[in-house]
Amino acid sequence: MNYEEAKIKFVSTWGSLGTLWGINKAMAQIQALLFISTKPLSMEDIMEELKISRGNTSMNLRQLMDWGIVTKEIIPGERKEYFTTEKDVQELARTIAKERSRREIQPVIKVLKDVSSIKDDGTEKTKELIKQTKALHELTETADDMINKLVNQRQNWITKSLLKLLT
Amino acid sequence: MNYEEAKIKFVSTWGSLGTLWGINKAMAQIQALLFISTKPLSMEDIMEELKISRGNTSMNLRQLMDWGIVTKEIIPGERKEYFTTEKDVQELARTIAKERSRREIQPVIKVLKDVSSIKDDGTEKTKELIKQTKALHELTETADDMINKLVNQRQNWITKSLLKLLT
DNA sequence: ATAAACTTTCAATAATTATTGAAAGTTTAA
DNA sequence: TTAAACTTTCAATAATTATTGAAAGTTTAT
Known about the structure:
The structure is a homodimer.
Chain A: H1 3-20, H2 25-35, E1 41-42, H3 43-50, H4 54-67, E2 70-73, E3 82-85, H5 89-116, H6 124-152, H7 156-166
Antiparallel strand pairs in A: 1-3, 2-3
Helix pairs in contact in A: 1-2, 2-4, 5-6
The first copy, chain A, binds a DNA duplex through residues 24-26, 43, 52-56, 58-59, 62, 79-81.
């Protein structure tokens, strides 16, 4: 496998993984491309590499910026805008975990809290609903907390030692 | 919010969360429905509750069984098949994490390993590709390991104490 | 063996989501 | 101020994914 093959394989695999986890393919691929690029890329560069339209590129770059994992780079003397992604995997993971938590998990935790707080009318089905959604609420909250804390450990050694502790 | 409203809210929220994370809505809703049901449900029951077709119900039940989180229940004297889901949230999380890891993460780890192992031809871009995919490989592998280990802790106290340790 | 009761399969269709491309918008240089 | 260089927007279209429903398949009771 040479450079070009490896690049294509990485970018397309990352795109597929994104799709599987509810992330738009183009978005994941743009991020992957920037992640292995040695220099900021322009919209033209991205369109060309991924064979996608200007509109698609523009919209997905904006989304990546909204997520906080891509930033605009102004290159002096250049008219075009250039883009880069966070290069540190730990920081990247931190940002993604934080955003998905905020956008997707927190609202669900809220619903689970509400649902599990309905008045117990004494029927078996109500008791079961309360019991099960309460358990799910606790699990979700704990998992969310944990992921955020783990991913926030900038010092990799804590993570490593935790892993040992758990083995 | 009464029982019926709470049930609808829970089931539909769970369905939306599924969609967001790449899981078919009907599949997530069926699982949610079974999760709060006090007794096994038949295909008819599920179709009726979720207003979905027989075919859809059948296919998604099969998928849930393939995932190992729903099982067929034979009720003596009954001709119909009945279904139940794993009721313990910890066990549920364990199964889902294991399956998603096996189906989706492991193949990506393999690709990252391959891509990060290409021959270093000395060019800057190749060095960057290797460096970045290697970092991603390590992160993915560590995260995957960790999630599986955490989720495998059947004794909740370990999880709880870990959380404290991390705070 | 037959038929009733049930489940599965899968081609057709619907619903959702992603993508295009060109017009409208913005910025910069002269 | 004009126009060239660039980006954004968004209605139209394409691609993907989910769902239906009816025919085919299976199981059980008689």
